[in-house]
UniProtKB/TrEMBL annotation, chain A:
GO terms for molecular function: ATP binding; ATP hydrolysis activity. SMART domains: AAA (SM00382). InterPro entries: AAA+_ATPase, ABC_carbohydrate_import_ATPase, ABC_transporter-like_ATP-bd, P-loop_NTPase. CDD domains: ABC_Carb_Monos_I, ABC_Carb_Monos_II. It is found in: Cell membrane. GO terms for cellular component: plasma membrane. Residues 488-524 are annotated as: Disordered. Residues 6-242, 259-503 form the ABC transporter domain. This is ABC transporter ATP-binding protein. Keywords: ATP-binding, Cell membrane, Membrane, Nucleotide-binding, Repeat, Translocase, Transport. It comes from Eiseniibacteriota bacterium.
Length: 524, 347
């Protein structure tokens, strides 16, 4: 192999009392896709932050093309030809593609004025060269998630990036968009760009990467050719043991409907209907999965079922009680638990302790606290067992929730929502951004809840998750349920077609977009 | 390194002290510029403010209204609200206390209880108005509380025309039973200083606010709304209701501060009695990091500066102390982000 383009040598980085990176080595050669895999908290993000100048290493050095450099800040990293595509896009919605790409390094015409025409031509030329189909004049808010991601990649390339770091790039994409992204990445590599791909999805590593480096607990446990490494072996390297397959689903017939929705219409922030005439029921002892590309009404559906946004039409029943029009407190009182899709905006109060976060939503319950009192040692002591059981690290009841890694925050929320004895569980993206071990754990808990006779509504953009857990699957497209199936009767590709409204009539008839109500909406 | 990082965290936590030190250092430059010796002036200031029983009593007297207003601002801040209207709430509180103390014919010590309650209720009402506007219409509380300060001043002046004693701008004295005793009646060393029972009420309220915030269901919801309204809503907390309640409680705390001057010192309400205690309360809360303990310490510090200004007035203009207060506020605002950035960079 040629001289490494980027060489991280013996990087050690301590965060507080824990060692996030312990003598980690990473070599990136020109024209390779190097997958960086590991569980949450394994040190992937820290390593990339060190490379990108957001953290200074305590030990070790960074070599670019064989020369030692000091990455003082992200600007230095960009000067050295590094570009990062974050999981959460850093784009200005109201500006055009060209404006976003050139933002901060605009070419100026005379008198310091901007030259939008030049910018658009430059961006168009760049997009052409790397075969990234995107219209420079389009506004970001009009673009699909996949197109927005291409803009992020263009942004990095425009600044002269020869090394791209992609953080979980497929987390928000449909299967079709993933294919498109992979094509783009392969083209970039053919052009001599090298890529670091941070991911949890081992199938993607297999499909795309040339080499992989596995981190576990801050140390590099292996660097290997992907061709020589099976997915099972990768999983084993990541978690240190082979995760057992999920338990067989019990074949008991589902019981009474615990979460019922009839003729539901919910409007979004712009007062436009985002959920249209949706009806379904989730019965005791079943998991119903809702598949769909993000932005097809899932968010509004979840918010409405949780009591955070009143429906404009139709009604919601939880364990038989009509709750539509009431708030989150009434929904919870009727027996609903809710793992929210956005843990930072909804699920947690970052500046409050783990113990306090474990009672969010339950703060008025008689068993939680006594009389008007809540807090102190009683609350902390009551939380210890659950923090241990759900393996929240660190299991310190007094630590602030904002200090936990994403995966641990998700486990904290699961610990709260799955232990309160609710009869119906609304699980929205329950494993988003969570490592393999925690995904497995949360999946088992959800299955256990189902087997204990709870009704679980699972909303996820991970089709593998929907397929692995659901007893029935509903596909949401443009606010309507357009397809109902079971995991045994379908696969990712078919679901992907339904999710994008492109299902051919041979597979399963696509309902009319407007007009006649559907009957196969899954009303039990 | 982990040790170094822990030390930085301590520094960040102690940022108010650093702000005070930086302000004193910057103030020293001003003192030197007018030809005085900074260390001598500071020594004189703090020796007089804390060194004698009378001086300590004066410091405590001046710290008392700041304790109330500081607590008021801190409580609202915890709920995510910036109550700039503490001055007006203090003002109507003092006025209500004077009226209740002077006109309610009650036996024994009941007039004092009634007057204190009146102060709290008037302040609560004055705080609840912007709270309700925020909860119902989302109207920004900063604008509305500022405006209501002016309304409070004007309203009280207007009502005072009929109530003030002839040729004065103050009401008649409150009944003897409504007067709060001075502390020098129990602690002889404070002899002559106007510090009164109102201070004890303030300290009790500081304890009560701490208990409310960190040990009750209500305080939990209040803090959740302040930190992350989205999560609070998810947790079934009524955002508007909590905001309204927080503003009413904040106003009540500010209004109760009126008891210091009206019931414990002059025994009547006088136009302009609040003297900026509401505004300094914002600085007190800021310096005290919105924690009741911090507010106690910060109000003591500002009280000492306020009394010390009079003492050093013969050698440096008293405006210097106002400059010093302003510097403390500036440094308190800057210290934390600067230290945190430094901590991130070097830890």
């Amino acid at each position: 192999m040629s001289t490494p383009h980027v060489h991280l040598k013996g990087i050690t980085r301590r965060l507080g009392t824990c060692v996030a990176n312990d003598g980690v080595e990473l070599e990136l050669v020109p024209g390779e896709i190097h997958a960086l895999v590991g569980e949450n908290g394994a040190g992937k993000s820290t390593l990339m932050k060190v490379l990108f100048g957001l953290h200074q290493p305590d030990e070790g050095e960074i070599l670019i093309d064989g020369r030692r450099v000091r990455m003082t800040d992200p600007r230095a990293a960009m000067r050295h030809g590094l570009g990062m595509v974050h999981q959460h896009f850093m784009l200005v919605d109201t500006l055009t593609v060209a404006e976003n790409v050139t933002l901060g390094s605009e070419t100026q015409a005379r008198f310091g004025l901007l030259a939008p025409g030049d910018a658009e031509r430059e961006v168009a030329a760049l997009a052409e060269r790397y075969r990234l189909p995107v219209d420079p004049k389009a506004r970001i808010s009009q673009l699909s998630v996949g197109a927005q991601q291409r803009v992020e990649i263009l942004k990095a390339l425009y600044r002269g990036a020869r090394v791209l770091i992609l953080d979980e790039p497929t987390a928000v994409l449909t299967p079709q968009e993933v294919d498109e992204l992979f094509a783009v990445l392969r083209a970039l590599v053919a052009d001599g760009v090298s890529i670091v791909l941070i991911t949890h999805k081992l199938a993607e590593v297999k499909a795309l990467a040339t080499r992989l480096t596995v981190l576990r607990a801050g140390r590099r446990v292996a660097t290997a050719l992907v061709a020589d490494t099976s997915i099972e072996r990768m999983a084993e390297l990541m978690v240190g043991h082979v995760p057992a397959p999920l338990t067989e689903r019990s074949d008991e017939a589902p019981g009474a409907p615990l979460l019922e929705v009839r003729g539901l219409e919910v409007r979004d922030a712009r007062r436009l209907p985002a959920v249209r005439d949706v009806s379904f029921a989730v019965r005791a002892g079943e998991i119903v999965g809702i598949a769909g590309v993000e932005g097809n009404g899932q968010h509004e559906l979840i918010e409405c079922l949780a009591g955070l946004c009143p429906p404009s039409r139709g009604d919601v029943r939880i364990a038989g009680a009509a709750v539509s029009g009431h708030g989150a407190r009434e929904h919870r009182a009727a027996g609903l638990a809710h793992i929210p899709s956005d843990r930072l905006h909804r699920g947690l109060v970052s500046d409050m302790s783990l113990a306090e976060n474990l009672v969010l939503g339950l703060q008025r319950r008689p068993g939680v606290g006594t009389g008007p009192w809540l807090g102190g040692h009683t609350l902390e002591d009551a939380s210890r067992a659950r923090l241990q059981e759900y393996d929240v690290r660190p299991p310190d009841p007094r630590a602030f929730a904002g200090r936990l890694s994403g995966g641990n925050q998700q486990k904290l929320i699961a610990a709260r929502e799955l232990t309160q004895g609710a009869r119906a569980i609304l699980a929205a993206h329950p494993t988003r951004g969570v490592d393999l071990g925690a995904i497995d754990f949360i999946h088992r808990r959800l299955l256990a809840e189902r087997d204990a006779g709870r009704a679980v509504l699972l909303v996820s953009s991970e089709l593998s998750e929907i397929l692995a857990l659901s007893d029935r699957i509903l596909v949401l497209y443009e606010g309507r349920i357009v397809h109902e199936t079971t995991p045994a009767a379908t696969d990712e590709r078919t679901l992907g077609l339904h999710m994008t409204g492109r299902a051919s009539h041979g597979d399963s008839p696509l309902p009319p977009r407007e007009g006649a109500p559907r009957t196969s909406g899954g009303l039990a | 390194m982990s040790d170094r990082r822990v030390q930085w965290q301590w520094l960040v936590a102690l940022s108010p002290l650093l702000a005070v030190a930086a302000a004193l250092a910057a103030g020293a430059v001003f003192i030197a510029a007018i030809g005085e010796k900074p260390l001598e002036i500071y020594a004189l200031l703090f020796r007089e403010a804390f060194g004698t029983g009378y001086g300590l009593g004066q410091t405590l007297f001046r710290a008392t209204p700041l304790l109330f207003t500081g607590l008021a601002v801190a409580l609202a801040f915890r709920a995510g609200l910036f109550n700039v209207g503490v001055e007006g709430q203090l003002y109507v509180g003092g006025f209500a206390a004077a009226l209740a103390g002077a006109y309610l014919p009650l036996p024994g010590p009941l007039p004092a209880v009634a007057a204190v309650l009146a102060a709290g209720c008037a302040g609560a009402l004055w705080g609840a108005i912007p709270g309700a506007l925020k909860a119902r219409f989302g109207a920004h509380e900063v604008i509305n509380t500022i405006m209501l300060n002016f309304v409070a001043f004007a309203l009280v002046s207007w009502a005072g025309r009929a109530l003030f004693l002839p040729a004065t701008v103050h009401t008649r004295d409150v009944a003897a039973g409504a007067q709060l005793p001075r502390l020098d009646a129990f602690v002889p060393v404070l002899r002559g200083a106007p510090v009164n029972v109102s201070l004890l009420l303030g300290l009790a309220l500081a304890f009560a606010v701490a208990l409310l915030l960190f040990r009750t269901r209500l305080g939990y919801e209040l803090r959740a709304v302040g930190h992350n309204a989205g999560a609070a809503e998810y947790g079934g907390v009524s955002i508007g209701g909590t905001q309204l309640l927080a503003m009413a409680l904040s106003g009540a705390l500010a209004g109760l501060g009126g008891s210091n001057f009206v019931l414990g010192y002059k025994h009547y309400f006088e136009l302009g009695f609040s003297g900026g205690a509401g505004c300094i309360g914002i600085a007190v809360a800021l310096l005290g990091r919105n924690h009741p303990t911090g507010v106690i310490v910060a109000s003591l510090f500002f009280g000492a500066l306020s009394y010390g200004a009079l003492v050093v007035n013969t050698r440096v203009p008293r405006e210097l102390v106002e400059v010093l207060m302003a510097l403390v506020i500036l440094f308190a605002i800057c210290a934390r982000p600067l230290l945190e950035r430094a901590a991130r960079r070097w830890a």
